[in-house]
Amino acid sequence: MSAILDHTHDPAAQSWVASANAADADFPIQNLPYGLFRRAGSNDSPRVGVAIGAQILDLNRAASAGRWSSAEHVALQPLARGDLNAFMALPSAQRRALRQALFDALLAGSKQEAALQACLLPQDEAEMLVPCRIGDYTDFYTGIHHATTVGKLFRPDNPLLPNYKWVPIGYHGRSSSIGVSGQQVRRPLGQLMPPGAAAPERAPAKRLDYELELGVFVAGGNALGDTIPMEAADEHLFGVTLLNDWSARDVQAWEYQPLGPFLAKNFATTISPWIVTMEALEPFRCAFAHPAEDPQPLPYLDSAKNRAAGGYEIELEVWLQTAQMRAAGAEPTRLMRSNFGRSAYWTLAQMLTHHASNGCNLQPGDLLGTGTQSGAFAEEGGSLLELSLGGKQSLTLPNGETRSFLQDGDTVILRGYAVKDGARRIGFGDCAATVLPAKSA
Question: 9, 145, 146, 354: which one is catalytic?
Answer without folding.
Answer: 146
